[in-house]
Amino acid sequence: MGRVAIPVAAAVTVVLVGGQFVAPLIATSILRSRLSKDGTVLSARVSAFPWLQLLWQHADKVTVRLADYTLEPSRLEGQLHEAEAVGTVDVSIGVLHTGLVTMRHVSFTKHGDELVGAANLDIADLRAALPFVKSLTPVRDSGGRLVLRGTASVLGVEASVDFVVAAQNGKLVLAPTGLLGAFTTITLYDDPQLRVESVTATTVPGGLRFLAKGTVI
Length: 217
Known about the structure:
Blueprint: H1 2-35, E1 39-47, E2 59-70, H2 76-83, E3 86-97, E4 102-111, E5 114-122, H3 123-129, E6 133-140, E7 146-154, E8 157-168, E9 171-176, H4 181-184, E10 186-189, E11 194-204, E12 207-216
Parallel strand pairs: 2-3
Antiparallel strand pairs: 1-2, 3-4, 4-5, 5-12, 6-7, 7-8, 8-9, 9-10, 11-12
């Protein structure tokens, strides 16, 4: 019995050790294939120890680098649901098309349920999303908050209006301050499985860069 047990134990060890190398490579290949349907993948890596957790679609870390990516709003919920099973997610995207606005130099990391994301919004892209606004200029208001000041034309009436990137009801929005906010708020990101809790913004050449923090629900 002892002589039989030794080869069996050795075979199990080979399978476990070999699987630790092979299984993450297979998972990475599947991930690259899925991402390449909607964007240009520069690199991708799935890490899992032990590798057996991949059988239950769990992983320790997923790292992705994309030159560009188109994220359909209708598919956000499913992708966030899959990310829940990953301990750490580290993603960067050169250009992200959401169907609402175009974001550039996008990055986000997820540790457990906490998610932090950052992206650039070009003034030209914001103007395209707000056709009734003639101009937008980043300024600081009296409270030190970064706002985008412009001239809007609503129902034939022109008025100066300030826009802010903010967290509103769990969403990431671009909203005018004052009475126009109820009619012209632009949703930049919205998904029922992610609650955006806070947003800060700074100026960059040609636009602004925002940092958002949230929780995966």
